[in-house]
From TrEMBL:
Family: Belongs to the cytochrome P450 family.
Organism: Natrarchaeobius chitinivorans
Top-level taxonomy: Archaea, Methanobacteriati, Methanobacteriota, Stenosarchaea group, Halobacteria
Protein name: Cytochrome P450
PROSITE patterns given in the database record: CYTOCHROME_P450
Record keywords: Heme, Iron, Metal-binding, Monooxygenase, Oxidoreductase
InterPro entries, per the entry: Cyt_P450 (IPR001128), Cyt_P450_CS (IPR017972), Cyt_P450_E_grp-IV (IPR002403), Cyt_P450_sf (IPR036396), Cytochrome_P450_Monoox (IPR050196)
PANTHER family documented for this protein: BIFUNCTIONAL ALBAFLAVENONE MONOOXYGENASE_TERPENE SYNTHASE, CYTOCHROME P450 FAMILY 4
Keyword hit for Heme: yes
A UniProt-annotated Pfam family: p450
Amino acid sequence: MVEKRTHMSETIPTADRLPLLGSALEVGRDPFRFLERAPAEYGPVFRVSIPGLSFVCYTDAELVERVLAAESDRYRKDPRELDLLGDLLGEGLLTARGEIWERGREHVQPAFYPGRLLEYGEEMLDRTGDELERWEDGHRIDVHEAATRLTLSIVATTMFGVEDVEETDAIADAADAITSRFEPSRVPMEIPLWVPTPANRRYRRATDDLDDVIEAILRRRRESGGETDADDRPDLCSALLTAGESGALSDAEIRDHLVTMLLAGHETTAIALTYTLGLLASHPDERERVLEEVRAPAELTPRTELPHTDRAIREALRLYPPTYMLYRETATTDTVAGYEISEGTRVCLSQWAVHRNDRYYDDPLEFRPGRWTPEMRESLPEYAYFPFGGGPRQCIGRRFALLELRLCLARILRSVRIESVPETELTPTPALTSRPDGPVPVRVRR
């Protein structure tokens, strides 16, 4: 239960207040460590103040549920998100609101129906097999680089209907430049996009290159009459093009949905796969349990049940959620934990803070897949675990991502054993996602 305050006039606790800099130094030194310890130090609701930016953090599962589900009408998507990502994602599902979002979701949703997912699963297994051909016995590989290449090939095949995206490097560079721009530890305040810093210039070049990629894909698909390179299976791209021909979606909306799915459909999954492989490499006992499970079936299919593999993925997503913060803005004044939160207040919901809170998890900093028993899941508050968000705007690709993680991980470990090396470290970067701050090397044994 959220601790109730008795005086409505109480001031919301604020992380270290320094003249001019506010909370910038405390947060900037180690944002993830700050998120881990702040709930115990400041309580379930506290304010963070950085030059040009102030927001209130909710770090209690009940409050997360209030914002995302129970009282979601009191909160809206953060307008600042449009300022930061609007030029890139436009009216895609991550940034769109109201009727535009509802219409977009209506046209995107069929690409993620259960029957379609099973078809995608076969492609996921095939693409993983292709990636494994690059891995040589005894060699060291950067699993983040490999995972990014793999998940990009999967989204290209399943969502865009092409066997490969020739412009893969442009897409990967764009994702890297986009997430790099949002690293808060570089300076204690945000730098507007119009300031011609090296990071901003790289971001602009990357978004231009990404637009070129999308235009090339759409041009090829229109010239082929919408047919795909990968069988005759309909995909997201063809569905959006059909909606465009009927007048239901504009060319700009089609572009925005495709850019959103291209980036969100591979970046966060690559991060999750990287951390899961890295954790298993560093925890041999857990790795062997997964190895035994994935190598037992005579054949691996999208329908194969892999409970321990699923628990390892769930635990990796708890410890290292690729999306580690969600932002909303109060649409009306709300009262939470006894504090009055005025209309127009920016609110932060941090997966990192909640997932690593010892109120919900024993030994929360330990990688323990076995914790996810049916009894534990039954007793855990629903929003003490929300790697994909929740409520009406829960990630539309959640089931796709979980299936992809399960099949890629299982296919990899059926073929090779991943071992840690002294340099195997999982150190996330506090950027737009919690991607690794550098290569994640492991050794491959066949």
